[in-house]
Amino acid sequence: MARPYWTGNLQISLVSFGVSLYVATETKSQISFHQLSRRTGERIRHQKVLESAVENNEATTAVEKDEIVKGYEYSKGQYVIIEPSELENLRVPTKHTIAVSQFVDKADLNPEYVEKPYFVLPENDSQTETYGVIREALVKSGKVAIGKVAFSGRENIIAVVPAGERGMMAYTLRYQAELRNHADYFRDIKSTAVDQDSLELAETLVKKMSAKFDLGKFEDAYEVALKALVDAKVNNMPVPVEEEPRPKMGKVINLMDALRKSIGEESQAGNQTGKKPPKSEKEPQKGKIGLVKGQEKGLEKASGKAAGKRKSA
User: Fold this and answer.
1) Has residue 282 got a pLDDT over 50?
2) Residue 19: which pLDDT band, with cuts at 50, 70 and 90?
3) Nearest CA to 180 among 112, 114, 106, 115?
4) Start-to-end CA span in the chain (Å)
5) What is the CA radius of gyration of the chain?
6) Half-sphere exposure of 185 toward its Cβ, with a 13 Å CA cutoff?
7) How far, in Å, CA of 5 to CA of 21, rounded?
8) Cα dihedral sign for 230, 231, 235, 237?
């Protein structure tokens, strides 16, 4: 198991127990690039040098790592130096404690607030009992614990929820001021009347294409194509090119015909794979989308609420 990203206490009123946070995501890309000189093919190296040397075209010498400190520009060209030890000793109580301040309904946690997921584990075996009690309380109540914790150079809002059969997850959340106002983007959309026949066809198409959400079925096609390009160049093979032109993005001339054709194609695809059509077009198929696969009922209820807000915007 990887080393914990953060270790401290999770505190709820007078209840406190040790937990560790582990980053729940990782980069799976297999292709990475370096910067090279086109003329010589040599790798380019970047050095940190004094600004004055660059401006005066003087011989530049790399500044050593231990000479570099952070500085805040309080006036043009005027800086105050902040020492690493001063940052370490900032008076922020949440550096070592996730301080839970309230519990909210899962439906109130809109997906646009969610930033990054973490696995939450008890710090050691002696913390497991309290960990389990708090987790079960969240399951029974259907609530999310909201608190604050300081790491990564800032104090983060954090949500803690039960996940899987025995665990919990935490999600750092964006501050409200960090979210742009959707009205600034949606208000210029032209208001149009929705044709009832087109709407019914669109609803039928949605139902026919509905399925249980499975992230494992998705693959990064860009990564696959990039690897094919690199392999071809390494082995002196012809470079693969896009065979089909990209579909033209534009106004659909006949929406009704496009919807009918789409429904027909989906029906044929379903029959070829042995997929049974829905019993009734008026009876939507059941399916749930969660932020984390396996999370108990997840945070998917928030998606419906957020969609309602966007529709009314």
Assistant:
1) no
2) very high
3) 112
4) 45
5) 27
6) 5
7) 6
8) negative
Element of type H or E holding 130: helix 128-141
- 134 pLDDT band, cuts 50/70/90, is very high
Can you list the positions of beta strands (E) in 59-212?
70-75, 78-82, 97-105, 114-122, 143-151, 154-163, 167-173
- In this predicted structure, the answer to whether residue 307 has a pLDDT above a threshold of 80 is no
Report residue 208: phi and psi, to 5°.
-65, -30
| 8 A C-beta contact, residue 24 and residue 292 | yes
What pLDDT does 296 receive?
41
**51 residue type, one letter:** E
DSSP secondary structure string for all residues of 82-98: E-HHHHHT---GGGSEE
Cα separation, 5 vs 23, whole angstroms: 6
**Parallel/antiparallel/unpaired status of strands 6-12 and 97-105:** parallel
- Distance (Å, whole) CA 254 – CA 261: 11
Contact 171/116 with Cβ under 8 angstroms?
yes
